[in-house]
Amino acid sequence: MTHQGELFTSAPLDNLKYEKSAYSKGCQYVAGIDEAGRGPLAGPVMAAAVILPVGLSINGVDDSKKLTPGKREKLFDIIMSQALSVGVGIITATDIDRINILQATRKAMLAAVHQLYPAPDYLLIDGISTIDSVTTQKTIKKGDSLSLSIAAASIIAKVTRDRLMIELDTKYPGYGFAGHNGYGSAAHMDAIRRLGPSPIHRLTFAGVREFVDSNI
Where does 4-170 sit in CATH, by number? Predict the structure, then answer.
């Protein structure tokens, strides 16, 4: 069994170079930001923002998609206990349909940042889109594989959303949300055909909108 102390190591250069660059400019609170749930046909999009202590590295932290559910859960608890601050933003399927998924993702990221205390003075954002914040920010393609702070945020966002989808599976039975988390699996598509869209489906998404006015 791995003890918590063994999960913390000296910070490797490769996944802290963006944080170190910000520190070298005088920044103290660098926040990594990432989302979970852009692609699913159902459920919210979530974003997390994480500020880690300077120099802290957590062994095993990586893009959440590369980790097993068990590993994500374990790292989630460690990140939550060791981070200086964690914020989570959530935008519902209804709002996604209203403003589109790109704007909803940016809005979720901004909401996550607004929850941070102390307030960050530098933002590292996964992807290519900035957010509506006056705080200095840098976008990084595949940032969840290149920045420890972003990778930590990806784990927080993914685990938080997965837990919510398990709850929603109980509220809206028959769709299998706990198994596919809202993604367009064959079983999920079959459920939409049989039951029609639920209140948490994204009605503007292909795979759902075809069944908005019919229950086939």
Answer: 3.30.420.10
